[in-house]
Amino acid sequence: MIVPEKVEKSNRAWLFMKPFTKAMWVLTGAITIYNGFTLWLIERNQSPELMTGSILNQMGTLVCLSFTTLFSMHGGRQHSNLSRLVMVVWLFASLVITNSYTANLTSMLTVQRLEPTVVDVEDLKRDNAIVGCSRRSFAVRYLVDVIGIKMRNIKDIISADQYARDLRSGEIAAAFIEAPYAKIFLAQNCKGFAASGKIYKVGGFGFVFPKGSSILPDISKAVLEVAEKGELDDLENNLIGSQKCDSNAETSKDSSSLSPSSFWPMEAPIQLKKLMSREVYYSSRIGKEEKVAMEMAIEEFNSQYSNQHIDLLINDSQGEPIQAALAALELVYRHRVKVILGPQSWEEASLVAEVGSQAHSPILSLAYATPQWATERWPFLIQASADQSAQMKAIAAVIKSQDWHRVTVVYEDIPSSATGAVLQLSEALKNVGIEIGHLLPLPPLSSSSSLVEEPQSLKEGQCRVFVVHTSLQLGVHLFETAKKMEMMKEVYVWIITDTISSLVHSVKASTISSSMDGIVGVKSYFNETTPQFKIFRGRFRRKFISEHPDEEKNEPGIYAAKAYDATWAAALAMKGGRGAAAEVGTGHMGSIGVIVDNSSRIGKEEIVAMKLAIHDFNNKSNRQLDFHVRDSQSDPVLTLLSARNLIEKSRVQAIIGLETWEEASLVVELGSKAPIPIVSLADAAPQWATDRWPFLVRASPEKHLQMKAVAAIIGSWGWRRINVIYEDTNSAGSEIIPFLADALKQVGSEIGYLAALTPSSAVNSSSLSDQLQRLKGKQSQVFVVHSSLSMAERLFSKANELGMMEKGSVWITTDSITNLVHSMNSSVISSMEGVLGMKSFFQEDGARFQDFYSRFRQKFRSLYPKEDNYEPGIFAVRAYDAVWSVALAMDNNGSTQQLLEKIELSDFHGLTNRIKFERRRLAPQRMFQIVNVIGKSYRELGFWSEGSGFAKPTNGQIQNSSSMDILGQVFWPGGPTSTPRGWALPTSETPLRIGVPLNATFKQFVSVTYDDGGNPSVSGFSIEVFKAVLKHLNYSLPHEFFPFSGTYDDLVEQVHLKVRDLFILLTHNSILSYITNTFLYLTYKIVSMLRNLMQWLAIRR
User: Fold this and answer.
1) Most buried residue among 213, 508, 708, 901 by CB atoms closer than 10 A?
2) Which residues of 124-163 are buried (b: 16+ CB within 10 A; e: fewer)?
3) CB 339: neighbour CB atoms within 10 A?
4) What is the pLDDT at residue 246?
C-alpha cells in the first residue's frame, strides 16, 4: 500500500517530558532523593542548621538538598571526604543525564518527522476511502475478496504517473501496487510517498504454464542457471536498476521550536474501539427408510388398482453382499418374483445384477455408485439413482468459489468409492484447476474400532481443505475423532458428500452440534413443498415411528423418496398381471477346495501347479490329501455358489484360489461364517481385508512396493506428468491407484489423467478407441497400464492402429500384464514393442525349480495343447507354495482355527523363495525385474529393489544406482535408442504461442509497440529474462508473442478455457505460456521460491 507522507503534527504538550521514558524519570528522581539523603546523613553533625527546626522543616531541607546537589554542593564546601566522594560520583552521573536529555530534546525540535497519511487498511475501509489499483491486475480481486474493500471504492489506474498525480491531488487515499512495481514507483517518486501497512503475500506470478506442463522442469532448471550465473542481476541492472531517486528529505519551513503551548498539557480525545468476535450407530437407516417407503407405495398401488394385487416380499441383506446374492437367488428361483428392488451398495448390486441377468429378472438398483458400463454388462440392471458426476461438479464449484487450490479427499475404502465417486471428483476438480493433494482411504467401520493414525496424518499435512466421502456412521466417527484432535477449528474446512448429508436429518442434534458444527455439505435436492409429498411425509412419519420407535428422528429423506418412486415404477410396469416384487437390502488328512478360472492363463497355470503340489506332498508325506476343483468361469456369483458347494457338500477344510478380489471378497465372507481358512491368490486386496475377515489368508503380496518401482523408473527419466490406464475393476481402483499416486509424488511426478477402461468382459472396440483417442490428444505421452492380459492384448493392438506406439511415447506395464509376458504369442508381443514392464522376480536356477519347470511343461502341454507357450510364471509358483502352506498345516485332529494359526505361522523354503506370512499376508515382494519388449520377444534389463534402487549383474558383481542408466540401453516405441521426452515439442509450423499483457502499467517489465505495418514488438525485463532462459535449454523452442488486452485474470484464464485461437495451440494440447510482469523480479534472489516458478497463478494455495 503506497500513501502520501505528511509532516508529523503530534501534540506538543509535555514535549519537554518526552526525551525520557517514564521509567527513566522515576529512576532519576529516586537517585536524586537518595543522594540528598546520603549527604544529609553524612553532613548533619558538622552542619547544625541541618538538625535545627521541626521535623517538617528538616524534611523540607532534605528535599531541597537533594535537588541542589544536581548543580552545586550545599552551602559551599563539604566537611567530610566521604561527602566529597559522593558528590564527585553524582556530579559525573548528572552530567551524563543532563547532556542526554538535552540531545534528545534538541533532535525532537530540529528534525522533521514524516509519517504516512494512512497506516492501516482498516482505516480506509472504515472511512469508505477511494483507493487506486489497476483493474487489469489480479490485485483488484484480492482487494475485494480477501481484504474486503468495496469495488465501487477502487479507482482504475492506467499508468505509473497517474498513481502519483492522484495521490498528490487526494483523489485516492492509497494505491495498491504489486511489490516489484512499488519498488520502482518509490524509486521514481521517493519524495512525498511511502509504503505503509502490511505486505500481502500471494502465490506470485511470472511465466504461467498449464499445471503439469512438461516444459516446466526444463524451464525451471534454466531459470536457476540464469539466476546462479548472475545473468538475472545483469538484466536487472541494465533494464530497471537505473530507477534512482534522491533520498534526501525535503526541508520543511514549518518550525518545530518550543512555544508556550508546549509546556501546557492539552487533553486529546481518545477513541476506544471494541473488538468483537463473533447413534445410535445403526448401519441400516437407509434400509429402514426404503422399506417403509416401499410398503407405502405397494399399499397405495393395491388400493388404487383394486383389480390388481402385487405382493412385496422383503429379505434383509444385513449389509452383506453375499447375503444379498443369496437372498436374490431365493427370491428369483423359489418365490418366482418378477422384479427385485433396492440393493443399497454397488457391491450388493453387482451380485444381484448377475443373478437377475441369468434369471431374466429386472433389477432396480438404488445404489449410488454404479460404473457407467454396468448396464451394458448386465442387460437386466436398471439404475434407479443418478450417478454422482453432477454432485462432484457441485463440490468442485464450491471449492473453486473459495479459491482453494488443493484438497485432501477422505473416502471409505470400498470399491464403489475408489472407482466411482473419487475418480469423478478428481476429474471435476481438475476441470476447474484444483488438484487433489492426498487421497486418504479409511477402512470400513466394521473393520476398524478406532481412527487415530488417519486423522493424525491429516493434521500433519499442509492442506486444510478436506472432502469426505464415507458412510454416515464412518463420517460421524471421523468427525468425533477430529473434534478430539482439535481439527474442527477455523483453519480447517470440511466438505461432505451426500452419502452423509442426505442422512443428516436422521442424526441426533447433540451429535451435529458437538462434532459436525461448521461442516459444508452437498445434499441431493427434492421438492418438499408439493401437496403430494406433504401427504407422503405425514403418513411416512406415522408408519416409521410405529415400526422403529427407537429411532429419534422419523423424517423421510431422499432415499425414502427414491425407493417410493422406484416401487411405483415397477408396479406400474407390472400392471395387468399378478406378480411379486422383492427387496434385497442391501480318513485321510482332509480335503482342500480349489476355485480357479479354467479359461484364463492364470487359472490354467494355477491348476497345473496345484495338482503337482498335491502329488508331491502326498508322495513325500505318505498321507492322502484330497483335492476338489471348481471352475469359477470368472463369474463372482458362480464362484460363491462353488464355495458353498465345497463347504457344505465336499466338507473341505480350506479353499485356495480366487483369481480376483471380486471373487475373493464373496468367498471369504462365506469362509468366515463356516469357518474355514480362505487362501486367496487374488493379485490385489484392500489393506484392511485381513482385519475384517479373520479367516482370510493373502497368498499374494501387496502392490505398494511395485508402485514405488514404477515411480522410480518415471523419476529416473524425469517425466513429471503421467497418464494411467487401468481396467475399471474394484481391485484396481482401491489398491493400485492410491499407491501409485503416493509413489509418484515422492519423485516429483503426478497422475495427469486417469483412463478407466470398461472390464474386458464388457468392453467394445468403439469405447476403447474413444479412450485412446482422448489419451492421444494429451500433451503427456507417458502411459502406465494396469489391466488383465486379455484387456492388454486389445489395448496395445488398438494403440498401434491409432499410431500411439511411435517415437516419443513411453509405455510401462505393471506385473498384472508383464508376469504373463512369457505366455504371449508372437503377434501379441510384437504389438507391445518398446514397452517397459515390471515383473515379479523369482529365482529360476535352483534344482527344485528346474525339476518343477520340466514336469510343469509336460503336464501343462497335455492338459492345454492349444496354448502356444508352456512355461510356468509367478502365478504357478505362488499356487504351488500356497498348497504346501495349507498341506503342511493340516492335522486330522486339529480345528479350523488351529489350521488357520498354523498357516499363519508358516515358515519354509518354497519353490523359489522363503514363504512367510505377516498378519496373514504373504511377505512383500521386494525385488522386481524390469523387462523391455523387443520385436517378438523381450529382454531382461535388470532389477529394482527398495533401498538399493536399480541393479544389474555384471561379471559376477552387482552394481546399484538410483538411475536407470545403469541397466543399459532401452529400446523405446518407434525404435529410437534415445530416451523419449514423454511429451511433444512445439515446431516452427506450430510454435509455442505466448500471451503478453498489452497495456502493462509499468513498461519497464513488459512493453508492446507496433511498427508502421502494425506488427507488434515486445520488450522489457520479463521478455529479456525469458529469452535468456531459452538460451539455457538444450533444444530449440519455437515461439511467438501475442499481445493480449485484458486483465491478468483474463489472460491466465485462457489456458483453462481453451477458447481463444490466438493463444491456444491445439496440436500440442494447448502447451501455452504466458509471461506476466513481475514474478522473476520479485523472487529471483530467493532460489527456494524459484522451484515454484512455473506453477499456476494462485492467490492462496
Assistant:
1) 213
2) beeeeebbbbbebbbbbebbeeebebeeebbeebeebebb
3) 24
4) 46
Section 920-948 average pLDDT: 87
If you search the block for the grid coordinates 499435512, which residue do you land on?
461
Note whether 814 and 786 are within 8 A (CB): yes
Strand 406-412 and strand 465-469: the pairing is parallel
Relative orientation angle of helices 601-621 and 847-863, to the nearest 10 degrees: 120
Asked whether 337 and 579 are in contact (CB, 8 A), the reply is yes
Whose grid coordinates read 471348481? 630
Residue 1092, SS3 per DSSP = coil
485-531 pLDDT, tens digit per residue, is: 888 888 899 999 988 888 888 888 787 888 888 899 998 888 888 88
Mean pLDDT taken over the chain: 78
What is the 8-class DSSP label of residue 417?
I
Got the DSSP string for 657-697? E-SSHHHHHHHHHHHHHTT--EEE--S---TTHHHH-TTEE
CB-based contact 880:659 (threshold 8 Å): no
Which is more confidently placed, 814 or 98?
A: 814
754-804 pLDDT tens trace: 888 877 655 677 788 888 888 887 778 899 999 888 889 889 999 998 888
List CB contacts of 134: < 8 A, sequence separation 6 or more.
140, 156, 157, 158, 1001
In sequence order, the 6+-apart residues with CB closer than 8 A to the CB of 677 are 653, 654, 655, 671, 695, 697, 886, 896, 899, 900, 903
Write out the three cell numbers for 230.
548472475
Which amino acid appears at position 88 of this protein? V
Do the Cβ atoms of 520 and 564 come closer than 8 Å? Answer: no
Neighbour order of strands in the sheet with 465-469: 435-442, 406-412, 465-469, 493-496, 520-521
Query: 627-638 in b/e burial notation, b at 16+ Cβ within 10 A?
Result: bbbbbbebbbbb
Q: What is the 3-state secondary structure (H, E, C) of 522-576?
A: CCCCCCCCCHHHHHHHHHHHHHHHHHCCCCCCCCCCHHHHHHHHHHHHHHHHHCC
The Cα 144–Cα 154 span in angstroms is 9
Q: How far apart (Å, rounded) are the C-alpha atoms in residues 21 and 93?
A: 17
Cα separations in angstroms, 127 against 149, 155, 428, 731, 905? 11, 16, 42, 61, 77
Query: 484: which 3 cell numbers?
Result: 478430539
Best CA proximity match to 440, nearest among 417, 424, 416: 417
Residues forming beta bridges with residue 583, ordered by sequence position: 314, 341
| Cut 0.90: pTM above it | no
680 forms beta bridges with 657, 698
Between strands 914-918 and 907-909, the pairing is antiparallel
Question: Judging by DSSP bridges, how do beta strands 1073-1075 and 207-208 pair with one another?
Answer: antiparallel
Cell numbers that stand for 707 in this block: 508402485
CA separation for the pair 211, 1096 (Å, rounded): 6
Q: Which residues of 233-257 are buried (b: 16+ CB within 10 A; e: fewer)?
A: eebbeebbeeeeeeeeeeeeeeebe
In percent, the amount of the chain with pLDDT more than 90 equals 13
Question: What residues pair up with 451 in beta bridges, in sequence order?
Answer: none
Cell 441383506, residue located: 317
Kindly report the backbone phi and psi dihedral angles of residue 914, in degrees, each rounded to the nearest multiple of 5, phi listed first. Answer: -75, 135
User: What amino acid is encoded at 206 in this protein?
Assistant: G
Q: Is the dihedral of CA 376, 378, 382, 384 positive or negative?
A: negative
3-state secondary structure of 364: strand
**279 CB burial (10 A radius; 0-12, 13-18, 19+):** middle
Q: What is the DSSP string of 731-765?
A: HIIIIIHHHHHHHHHHTT-EEEEEEEEPPTTT--H
Between CA 932 and CA 942, with CA 937 as vertex, the angle to 5 degrees is: 35
pLDDT value for 624 = 84
Q: Identify the three-state secondary structure at position 1025.
A: helix
Grid cell, residue 653, equals 477344510
